[in-house]
């Protein structure tokens, strides 16, 4: 969680320096902000960073793209983070394979935050596959 958010900061060209923590058993990321309440959750913080970097196109341009990005971000948090068995991993990879058969990116033909966070979430799995 927190490591992924630091990587995202760098990718977005943000200066960094945000203070991240985790809470609970599931180690949900938390961002302490200087002006207001802290933000909780990978999707919430990631969307905040995208807006801070003024790269809103990563959240989708049309209402449909925004919905698809949101869908894949939810999938990332619920299925990729939640799954730990080989069967869970197999299901996630099969879902992605089917979805990407006729698309370049998760939201169709545009690169979005969903692609970035899915990459970060699956990278450790992909490097371990022979």
Automatic annotation (TrEMBL):
Pfam families, from UniProt?
Arc1p_N_like
Q: Which organism is it from?
A: Dryoscopus gambensis
Q: Where is the GST C-terminal domain?
A: 48-130
For biological process, the GO terms are: positive regulation of DNA damage response, signal transduction by p53 class mediator
InterPro entries xrefs: Arc1-like_N (IPR053836), EEF1E1 (IPR042450), Glutathione-S-Trfase_C-like (IPR010987), Glutathione-S-Trfase_C_sf (IPR036282)
This protein's GO cellular component annotations are: aminoacyl-tRNA synthetase multienzyme complex; cytoplasm; nucleus
What does the record give as the organism's lineage? Eukaryota, Metazoa, Chordata, Craniata, Vertebrata
Lineage, top-rank taxon, reads Eukaryota
The identity of this protein, by name, is MCA3 factor
């Amino acid at each position: 969680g927190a490591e992924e958010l630091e990587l995202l900061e760098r990718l977005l060209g943000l200066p960094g320096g945000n203070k991240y923590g985790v809470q609970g058993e599931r180690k949900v990321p938390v961002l302490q902000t200087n002006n207001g309440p802290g933000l909780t959750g990978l999707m919430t913080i990631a969307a905040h960073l995208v807006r801070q970097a003024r790269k809103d196109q990563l959240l989708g341009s049309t209402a449909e793209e925004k919905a698809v990005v949101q869908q894949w971000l939810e999938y990332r948090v619920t299925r990729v983070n939640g799954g730990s068995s080989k069967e869970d991993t197999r299901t996630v990879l099969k879902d992605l394979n089917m979805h990407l058969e006729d698309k370049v990116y998760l939201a169709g033909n545009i690169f979005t935050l969903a692609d970035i966070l899915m990459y970060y979430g699956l990278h450790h799995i992909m490097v371990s596959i022979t």
